């Protein structure tokens, strides 16, 4: 008995000192820290393991950038952490997708994929061209594009290539207008009884409605749809993008009906309050 008590007394400090497994948010903070992380490879899987073979994301970016991590969602087997990198002139957003390895007790959570909005390199040249357009040329442009004027395109592209914080700020400033636009579109077109066979035709009619356009254009929204995210009961306010790399705002008051995030399609779904979300796809 004395021997057992001696062994237990020797092991007890080790048990008390054993740290619990790292959670996704903790792993994210380690991964984006400017210093190295010797244990990094043990916390990577899949494509993330191939992308970060020698250096963490934090080591690959300038040390002057501030790093902010936010846990967006943690389910039983998946989790998503949003990472904002910023300095005095710019902000960039990345999304870290985690998977839970139930076979590992010491390292259950591993970073599986790193995502950001793609194809945004086309935006700055377009923005520069529109911003430097002479007044006479801008007037001609507006005549040729009555539904997407120069001023609309300037605001729209700034949102498209802007940070999540910029989009959230834009939404916060105009939340009543966004809600009125959603109510208008739903009452006229996307009613609960709308059959799927009429979705395309109804969507075209909604985006050609003068009242709907008058509500969307000051908000720098390109169009409304219910078909991009695979959520029949959601209303999407598309800002822009190229091919499948899109950004927009989603309206769905019932949180349980909001489509889940994944590295293969919806790379981020950030709640903005009152049933509104910022989304990006890839």
From TrEMBL:
Superkingdom, taxonomy of origin: Bacteria
Protein name (record): Uncharacterized protein
Species for this entry: Hymenobacter mucosus
């Amino acid at each position: 008995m004395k021997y057992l008590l001696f062994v237990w007394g020797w092991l007890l400090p080790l048990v008390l000192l054993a740290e619990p497994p790292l959670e996704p948010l903790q792993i994210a903070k380690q991964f984006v820290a400017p210093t190295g992380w010797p244990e990094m490879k043990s916390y990577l899987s899949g494509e993330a393991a191939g992308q970060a073979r020698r250096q963490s994301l934090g080591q690959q970016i300038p040390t002057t950038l501030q790093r902010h991590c936010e846990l967006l969602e943690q389910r039983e087997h998946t989790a998503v952490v949003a990472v904002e990198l910023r300095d005095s002139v710019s902000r960039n957003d990345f999304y870290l997708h985690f998977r839970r390895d139930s076979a590992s007790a010491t390292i259950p959570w591993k970073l599986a994929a790193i995502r950001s909005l793609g194809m945004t390199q086309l935006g700055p040249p377009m923005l520069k061209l529109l911003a430097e357009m002479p007044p006479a040329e801008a007037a001609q442009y507006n005549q040729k594009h009555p539904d997407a004027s120069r001023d609309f395109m300037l605001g729209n592209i700034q949102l498209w290539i802007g940070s999540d914080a910029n989009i959230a700020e834009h939404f916060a400033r105009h939340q009543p207008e966004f809600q009125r636009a959603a109510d208008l579109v739903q009452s006229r077109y996307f009613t609960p009884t709308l059959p799927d066979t009429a979705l395309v035709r109804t969507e075209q009619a909604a985006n050609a409605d003068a009242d709907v356009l008058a509500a969307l254009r000051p908000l720098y929204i390109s169009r409304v749809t219910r078909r991009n995210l695979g959520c029949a009961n959601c209303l999407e306010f598309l800002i822009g993008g190229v091919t499948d790399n899109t950004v927009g705002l989603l309206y769905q008051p019932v949180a349980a009906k909001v489509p889940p995030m994944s590295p293969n399609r919806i790379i981020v779904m950030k709640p903005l309050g009152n049933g509104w979300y910022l989304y990006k796809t890839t």
